[in-house]
Design brief:
The protein contains 6 helices and 11 strands. The chain is of the alpha/beta class. Strands 2, 5, 6, 9 and 11 form a 5-stranded mixed beta sheet that branches. Strands 8-3-1-10 form a 4-stranded mixed beta sheet, with no helix packed on it. Helix 4 packs across helix 6. The longest helix is centred in the last third of the chain and has 24 residues.
Length: 257
């Protein structure tokens, strides 16, 4: 009987001791962390691709949505934050403000860069523009928080959003050779045209994290469509569908495409 009483008392004492040992959050600064995908090997944020090629020819302006999470205490008042472009430092050209995207200092943008009172996250737009130069080459739009009276920069790997803007097909960063085989632009276009799906970063991430049976279905569908396409080409005296370098497009429905 005594044992049954003593054990709960000891447990309660231990819990009380644990509660007292927990550190109290007392940082004077609140921070903002961007929701990004981190590379499994380097731990750095990976680039996110946006291409106008998925849109109609008449679409000249579009929106990329980004989510940010607060670090620190909640506030009973709305809190504005600011963004600033940084140089990507890559061979790819940096995006030009006003040409490839709407300035972060634009009045329309500033109205959207606000964490509502009582909220610990916000979803805000990055407005991109379809300049003719994007048909010739992709541009990099890397940006970070510009510290102000409300927020400082957050954790190191979550400080930078790396956006690539283009108007042509390019290999999505979430593309997996294990699931989809070797990448090629002809193959990519074939997948879009014969499924009616976007096959961009967002779609591929959702697909890989979803139903394995659906992946197998799409692989089987594409293998069949390619077989029909090559049969049609053969009747016209053409070679099987291939990339610009001569690699034949292929889909294997099994463990991967």
């Amino acid at each position: 009987m005594r044992i049954k009483i003593i054990i709960p008392l000891l447990a309660a004492a231990m819990l009380t001791a644990c509660e007292k040992s927990l550190p109290v959050y007392d940082s004077p600064d609140d921070a903002l962390n961007f929701e990004v995908t981190l590379d499994e090997e380097t731990g750095e944020a990976v680039e996110r691709n946006f291409s106008f090629v998925y849109e109609g020819d008449d679409v000249m302006v579009d929106t990329v949505w980004v989510t940010a999470h607060t670090q620190g205490f909640l506030s009973t008042a709305d809190r504005s934050f600011e963004l600033q472009q940084i140089s990507a430092g890559t061979e790819r050209a940096d995006a030009v403000e006003g040409l490839h995207y709407i300035s972060f200092d634009d009045a329309e943008m500033k109205n959207r860069l606000v964490v509502p009172a009582g909220a610990n996250n916000v979803r805000f737009p990055v407005i991109v523009r379809r300049d003719a130069s994007l048909a010739d080459g992709d541009v990099s739009l890397y940006f970070q928080l510009r510290p102000n009276q409300n927020f400082v920069q957050g954790l190191q790997p979550l400080r930078t959003v790396k956006l690539v803007i283009s108007d042509r097909l390019s290999k999505p960063t979430s593309w997996s050779d294990y699931y989809f085989g070797a990448y090629g632009q002809v193959k990519h276009r074939f997948m879009i045209d014969h499924t009616g799906l976007r096959w961009d970063d967002d779609f591929i991430r959702e697909l890989v994290n979803g139903d394995w049976g659906y992946i197998q279905y799409l692989a089987m569908l594409l293998a069949r469509e390619l077989e029909n396409e090559n049969a049609s080409r053969a009747r016209q005296g053409l070679k099987p569908l291939a990339e610009a370098d001569g690699r034949e497009v292929s889909f294997a429905w099994g463990a991967s495409f």
